[in-house]
Amino acid sequence: MLEKIIENTSNYIDSMPKKERKKYGQFFTSIETARYMAELFDIPQNQDKISILDAGAGSGILSCAMIERLEKIETISNIEVVCYEIDKNVLPLLQKNLEIASEFSSKSVNIIIKEDNYILSQYLDFNHMINANFNPAKYDIVIGNPPYMKISKDAPEAKAMSGICYGAPNMYFIFAAMGLFNIKDNREMVYIIPRSWTSGAYFKRFREYFLSKGKLCHIHLFGSRNKVFDKEDVLQETIIIKVKKTVEKPENVTISSTNTNKDFDNCKEIKVPYDLIVSGEEKYVYLITSENEVGVLRKLNKYNKTLPDLGLRMKTGLTVDFRNRDILRNEEEEGAIPLFYAQHIQQGQVRFPIKKEHEYIFTDKKGLIQENKNYLFVKRFTAKEEPRRLQCGVYLSRKFPQYKKISTQNKINFIDGVLTEMSECLVYGLYVLFNSTIYDEYYRILNGSTQVNSTEINNMPVPELEIIREMGKKLIKTQDFSEKGCDSILEEYYE
């Protein structure tokens, strides 16, 4: 049956321009992924009727996969399927596919297609507002592949869900929040969504709601970014999550992984303590895939300080060069100051000049200028294929005595002494930390993107100041700026 659903969907994708589907953030689930998601549910065995919610149902692939799964359970005789979909182009296909699934099933299948806006039709209930339904529909199973689409902060859906939104939100996590609201207590939802929500300040409100009202039971990771959706060019890192609506933490979270959406038979699994996966005030979700990575988290979590605790802070470079073309200079001139780019970070040091264009700026704008003092520079962007995410360079003010002020391009981050003076020993010690294997691995577990986020770095655990200074002294002595050299120094301080 599901093969026919997929065939119908494939024909629809071929006939519908990508631009049209993009309006609704549509990316259709593969047959293998749909079956895998359906199999993740722990189905209640003590009831004969099961209700399913599929919001942003598209062509109904996930609903049909659930019907297929429930067909195997003899105790179930009635299935109710509620689908939300507002794309009038796909509605006929959704209706057709659900009818095929219904005819296939030996159960009594009741299909309800709601052409309502999934969020706006329920936001009063979600927010417990005047005119809310205080007994809204709740479901045994919530399954979904929600729209992946950024909306403005003034969009009706963003305003309706303001308690979980910050800035311009993405529809996927708004759907996930509402999905959790729609589950019966102690029942489960399975969603396929980007991993971006697992860290960063942008998603903090959502994480606070989502991980307080529900608990993660299972996370599935894909090794390949572009092999998750058939016939679709999606480069976001995508994960499958299973969440139980409960306040009770499970002992462990199962984390599984495959390279693509085709090899679930070769799935690798690991069970990880819940408190290692969901940790800290920010409720970051650490996506661990091996025992080695469990060890990485255990080692670093022994440290109970962060950079801000030590009077330090990572910041983003000040100057967006393409927005300030009038102040850029190719050659040094009187009154101009150096503008440092990622290219100036070389083998752990900051080299300047390197004869690249726009190495200087001429400006009196305070927001673009910083003191010439000691910093640790860190590249903000790296390619996914590069062996390291954290790439650092030691910046020492004494090497550039001719300048009182400098500037940094916004494609680098820098660690600054806000309340603590950044001595050379301290800068070198910070280099030991962030150029080590373990800190790079920690960051990769935390953030799957190629961008180094300053908020996340500021929340990473670090040793006490004096220990970092000691590490710096050892690096000054060895002058071995390699990853291996930093590992050797850091290893002396593990318990």
Give the topology, please:
Elements: H1 2-15, H2 18-22, H3 31-39, E1 49-55, H4 61-70, E2 78-84, H5 91-104, E3 108-114, H6 123-126, E4 139-144, H7 156-160, H8 171-181, E5 183-194, H9 204-213, E6 215-222, E7 238-244, E8 252-258, E9 268-273, H10 274-277, E10 278-279, E11 284-285, H11 291-300, E12 312-316, E13 328-329, E14 337-340, E15 345-346, E16 349-350, E17 360-361, E18 370-371, E19 375-379, E20 392-395, E21 405-408, E22 412-417, H12 424-434, H13 437-446, H14 454-457, H15 465-478, H16 483-491
Helix pairs in contact: 1-4, 1-5, 3-4, 4-5, 8-9, 11-13, 12-15, 15-16
Task: Provide an overview of this structure.
29% of the residues lie in helices and 22% in strands. By secondary structure, the chain is of the alpha/beta class. It folds into 2 domains: 2-289, Rossmann fold, CATH 3.40.50.150; 308-491, DNA methylase specificity domains (Adenine-n6-DNA-methyltransferase TaqI, Chain A, domain 2). Residues 225-235 have low confidence and may be disordered.
